[in-house]
Amino acid sequence: MSVGRMEGWNVGTVLAVLALSIIPTFQLSAQTDARLLEALRLAQSGQVDSGRAIVRRLLATLPPSDSSYSQALLAAAKIAPDARTVASNLNRIVVEYGAGPWADDALLLLTQLYFAQHDPAQTVQAGERLNRDYPDSPFRPRASFYAGRAYFELKNETRGCELIQQALAGAGDDVEFKNQVSFYAARCGATVTTTTTATPTSTDTGSKAVSTASHAYAVQVLAVKSAAQVDEMLTRLKVMGFEARVVRDSTGFFKVRVGHYATRDEAVRTQQRLKQKVGGQPFVVEEP
User: Fold this and answer.
1) Contact yes or no for 238/244 (Cβ under 8 A)
2) Among the residues of 79-156, which ranges form H helices?
3) Cβ proximity of 180 and 230 under 8 Å
């Protein structure tokens, strides 16, 4: 497996970011060992070496049959210094502990890692294995999303669309994820259903419901007609810790936006961070 760089980021760091701050509304299975939780906490607070030291000690002292061993491998993958070590630990979980509770977590992270490395063949292999071996896993929609996009790169539109539609069907109430999948579902001609919240009606007889919808704010980063540019920006923003989505207007432009803030001040703060990290000319927009 090649170890490369993407937009100036070491791929091992990319995976660590994905694993430690994976979409807030959809977490990986919560690790239960207090020692590993402390290791991850240290890593998240910037003390990565201390976190790695805890995990190394556990792996050196625990017998492989211990229930915490595969958990420790997962923690080691999350805070590994490079992509090769990340993949090695995750593959050990899949191969040696495939019947355990962490195998589908490992396969999802492998799918994301290979996708970030622009390795579509490995991406679809990991995603398809999760689909095949863990049909009840809550991570199937996520893995299908990345595998479907990888199939597009491999020019297999049919299987790519099947997985994208599967991801859309499993998106549930996760609006941000559904927006991302919907962008690709439109490519497949899938019908995307959006959920709206009804305005409560007045209890006074004879009165009509009055719309009380409030406005929110977001930061627009990009507006283009190229799916490739949108895909690249979404990946770049996710790596940097921003939750991005795509809005398509009536003129056919795809608009990449970040956040859904109650106040303009919150949006402005994000705008400033985006300007610093991503560059360009991000600006605040008002949304219904």
Assistant:
1) yes
2) 83-96, 103-116, 120-133, 140-153
3) no
**Cα–Cα nearest to 18, from 139, 196, 198, 154:** 139
For 263, the enclosing helix (H) or strand (E) is: none
Q: Is 196 helix (H, G, I), strand (E, B) or coil?
A: coil
Query: What does the pLDDT look like over 218-250, one tens digit per residue?
Result: 899 888 877 777 878 887 787 677 888 888 776
8-state DSSP, 190: P
Q: Which residues contact 226 (CB under 8 A, 6 or more apart)?
A: 254
pLDDT digits (tens, 9 = 90+) for 72-88: 999 999 888 888 899 99
Angle at 115 between CA 14 and CA 167, to 5 degrees: 115
261-268: long-range contacts, CB 8 A cutoff, minimum separation 24: 261/216, 261/217, 261/218, 262/214, 262/216, 262/217, 263/217, 264/217, 266/217, 267/217, 267/218, 267/219
